[in-house]
From TrEMBL:
Full protein name: Endolytic murein transglycosylase
Homology family: Belongs to the transglycosylase MltG family.
Catalytic reactions of this protein: a peptidoglycan chain = a peptidoglycan chain with N-acetyl-1,6-anhydromuramyl-[peptide] at the reducing end + a peptidoglycan chain with N-acetylglucosamine at the non-reducing end
Pfam families xrefs: YceG
Protein keywords: Cell membrane, Cell wall biogenesis/degradation, Lyase, Membrane, Transmembrane, Transmembrane helix
Transmembrane segments: 27-50
InterPro entries listed in its UniProt record: MLTG-like (IPR003770)
Enzyme Commission number: 4.2.2.29
Annotated site location: Important for catalytic activity: 259
Amino acid sequence: MDQETQKKEMLNKMKERKKEVKTVRKIVFIIAFAFIIVAAIISISMYFYVSGALKPVDSESNKTVKIEVPIGSTIDSIAVILEKKNIIKDAKVFKYYTKFKNESEFQAGTYKLTKAMTIDEIIKSLKTGKVYRQPTSTLTIPEGLTLDQIGARIAKNTTYTTDEFMTLVTSKEFVKNMKSKYPELITKKVNNKDIRYVLEGYLYPSTYSFFAEDPTLEEIVEQMIAQTNTVVTQYSVQLKEKKMSVHEFLTFASLLEREATAKTDRETIASVFYNRLETGMPLQTDPTVLYALGEHKDRVLYKDLEVKHPYNTYKVKGLPPGPIANAGKESLDAAISPADTPYLYFLADKNGINHFAEKYEDHLKNVDKYIK
């Protein structure tokens, strides 16, 4: 092989090596670039995940959740408890955040926290033994109010009017939405054409806390319905045993609520109503007459008892088509667990004390003694 040929072979080998080096460089560059892209994606994903995990689980939630922190709990175990109760989104993020902030010395005890609380609010609560989620406003709805009375109370304590409230609670769209959200509470029983207001009796009497600056009217009303759902669920087993629907339950309890005075024995009145229903007697309760008339007055006249209306229990046997007011816990308890008595009659004297009788002649004696 001559010298010229050897030179050519050497040049060819050098060119091939250069190509190999370029190829290797390209591969290394591509791998490095891909690694950078993947690292960037992971970093961005981690950033958004951690940022999301540090935000409240549900900033609109007002429902409190009971949390038990045992003595000797570590940050790790507390984080797990909070995640299981759905108060935080990620236990690890909570743990690392508290360590990053150098937070410690959490107190054992019982807490009522909300899903709307921030991580910092939760930490502050656990360190001091107090809940630092303060509502921006509260609204108290007493027992025994009708929808229009609730509307008036909302108008007095919020920026919404009674008309706006009544328009909402009678809206077919809103009622349909509530039916879909609370199907065990608002059932087909409310479809009765004789019912005045579908949601009458379905707004639970309680004090409600709102954390948003300006809660919508829908949020205010739904919170009341959600609370009714929560309370009524506690009676599910007993209702099945009594073969009583939720609608009948709320209707019955509303009668007790409207008959109640500060000294009323609800369980005994409930027994009177049940005894009358069993014997086929009309309930003959004055509050249903007032509801039929659509009036709020202190005294029912004899002419009022003659009004022809589905809610007038002097004229129609059985329960009225629906609740006539919102019933509280005492009335719900009495409706589900009445006293065992033979009474068919009762009346309240001028001091609000009830007097019961099994026979009509004894009832008339009570009338002469306590009313006339």
